């Protein structure tokens, strides 16, 4: 087994689905966490392939970009989908998340850059809430047709990990109400109570994002 | 060989890299083009998997999301990268494009929703130009290290098609100057002059996006 090191900030964020995947697969990895705004990241930034994190190192070979890392590991560990068609659907769901997150990110940027309450409310109302509506519609459509309760095929894939984590973040930001979204809440529960995952989820560091 | 049908608007946009890939691989496909704002799209929208296009149909089995479609085809046709590590890097580049495009899209939305000249200039200056700077830096870094002139390994992959198409769009929007970006312009030329691709590029419908 190669030596895996996953480097990211000390939050769930864009690395958490890969961390969950390591636990799901029962594969050891170094969970290297870098403090926000500290000197370590200042020094590290220029050495990363794309000037950003997460970065996965596999015996020293580096891979950037969260979804690329996750897909690489999912294929290695057998959680990428069982057929080329299942793989394409898992990819499509993760791409849909990325599209949604690109819009949700506008809210995070507005909050962090000190925009006014009115401007932040405008981003919520005009960008995040309509984007969430179509995103949840797509996900619920998939879960309504699913016999396994997972998003693709009859077992857990990396797409389930991405969506479960995103639901967690949306709840922490006030954009997810479990009582209104029972299917999505059920998916998160299925992921978080998986025997290989639940111990990690119970003990992991708390973070809003 | 299965029967492929690619359905998208009558522009390059998010389907063009897949169209180029069919030509590159020499695989026949139905290039189904739907008019913007017409009644066909109104009727079709509810029938698509995610309420959006492009959609690929493979003997009637549908796959949504542009990058998922492209990756699925690239794996089938042998243009996804030669090793799991090359595949991860091709994925990472396409994800980087998606991150950039999520920001570029804010400009398209501002223009189409009738924002003022000042607001559009603000999006250009505060969002698109900084995003382009880090995106081009990443791509140039890869091309500077490339021996083949392609982004990953020693041959053309789906990542090259995505980036070549995006350069074309950026030029049409005034965000790409070939004389300032010779490496990126060289990549576009390598893709567009490929023997399997150049005939299609010369004859395809003209569109800004």
Automatic annotation (TrEMBL), chains A, B:
Its EC number is 2.5.1.18. PROSITE patterns: GST_CTER, GST_NTER. Residues 83-209 form the GST C-terminal domain. GO terms for molecular function: glutathione transferase activity. GO terms for biological process: glutathione metabolic process. Keywords: Transferase. GO terms for cellular component: cytoplasm. Residues 2-81 form the GST N-terminal domain. It catalyses: RX + glutathione = an S-substituted glutathione + a halide anion + H(+). PANTHER family: GLUTATHIONE S-TRANSFERASE, GST C-TERMINAL DOMAIN-CONTAINING PROTEIN-RELATED. Belongs to the GST superfamily. Sigma family. This is glutathione transferase. It comes from Caenorhabditis tropicalis.
